[in-house]
Amino acid sequence: MLKQILAKLPKKSSKSNSEDSSYGSISSNNLVDVINGFQFINSCNAITSRLNAVKRMSSSIFPAGTEMLEPHISFKDIPNSDKQNLFVSKLNFCSLVYDFSDPEKQSAEKGLKRQILVELIEFLASDSAKFSEQAIAAMCTMCANNLFREFPPKYTTRRVRGETEADEPLFDVAWSHLQLIYDILLRFLSYNSLDAKIAKKYVDNCFILKLLDLFDSEDPRERDCLKAILHRVYGKFMVHRPFIRMAVANIIYRFVYETDHHNGIAELLEIFGSVISGFALPLKKEHKLFLTKALIPLHKPKSVGIYHHQLTYCIVQFVEKEPKLAGIVIEGMLKCWPVSNSQKQLMFLSELEELMEMISLEEFERIMVPIFRRIRFCLRSSHFQVSERAHLFWNNDSILGLIMKNRQVIMPLIFPALEQNSQNHWNRAVLNLTENLKKMFSEMDSELLLECQDKFEKENSNLSLVTERRKLTWERLENDAGLQPAANNISTRAESSPCVVVC
């Protein structure tokens, strides 16, 4: 009975043995062809596995009963009713991320993904796209997977950037791929048919924070794309505007008070220049706090030259809306005015002149003394460019009008610096500007000029007397110290008469 049962079982095929024997009989001439065939099969298998992963992702997005299309199909080969499904399928395929540090790695998959990204751009450019909630979710997922990433750490040994120079930009090796995704995201946000009420569920606070983190990219091309995208997000989603302003302020706080390094401050300020111009009057307390707590402290970092033009534009926008803010800004600048950095002084002088053109007479009279004390310091600077720039304030008609109305206070502050320049400055151009300025003062109020001249001469004579008395006192101290024996220095020190040093 047992033999009958065993006889009915199927016998083991000897196909594997024959295959092994045939594989062993392959000639050496055909071995290369076989290996190439295996490589092609492995590449196809890798693409097939990626497509299977896309199918699994698509099955979680498409509702049951919806036909899922292969992502490699062209939009031209299907009817309009299926284009929405194909659009989502292509987005899901492009959500897969590859390593671009090695150009030879997964080159077939990268090529297919690039081809599909180009097709998505062409589809969005045709203005025939309709964005359902599934399409919006797939779009945000694809952009997040590809764009949001960690940047390499900034090493402390890196050369510190100067006031006006920047490090040589580092270009991302995956930029040819990232550029297409940025283009897709920008076209998506620019679509008029995009429903902001639905999209805001996916373009949420977390999405915006990660988008802002990308502004620290070393690649200037990426920061330019981000600038356009953030501008679209700010204009499209009004509900997110307060959060964006708060997040940018936090980036500035971290830059000023903690890290002292950020690559995208200039781009963020450029965006906020247009944002500030749209603020309604009267300005909200939140907006004034952004000026005083974020923008004014941006004058402190050493790298202010990289973004100073954008910073000045933002501050001017505030002052144009509310001129009283000019005094607050100038006071903040005077607190962090550079002393030994000539290039930074030149930037501050230019910004100060622009603000003084817009300041009211009442606000000017409140802060004119500290302003012209600082200008006096710049007038007598040994750096000829700083001194020249300070002299040019009197060529501005608006500032000259303010000076003439308050010459009784300003001229005595400025005159000593002009006299010192006439006597001691080394640069011929500065000497000529000083003489022209003294001539202008003489024409403006000759009597006041003579009073300032007399006061300066008296102060000089008093200073000479004090200097001479100090010199005689030190000579007497040196003589007394030289006459006494070294052994008796300690015993006679207490008995020596006190000497008054006049300084």
UniProtKB/TrEMBL annotation:
One of its GO terms (cellular component) is protein phosphatase type 2A complex. InterPro entries: ARM-like (IPR011989), ARM-type_fold (IPR016024), PP2A_B56 (IPR002554). Coiled coil: none annotated. GO terms for molecular function: protein phosphatase regulator activity. It holds the Pfam family B56. One of its GO terms (biological process) is signal transduction. It comes from the Eukaryota. Belongs to the phosphatase 2A regulatory subunit. The B regulatory subunit might modulate substrate selectivity and catalytic activity, and also might direct the localization of the catalytic enzyme to a particular subcellular compartment. This is Serine/threonine protein phosphatase 2A regulatory subunit.
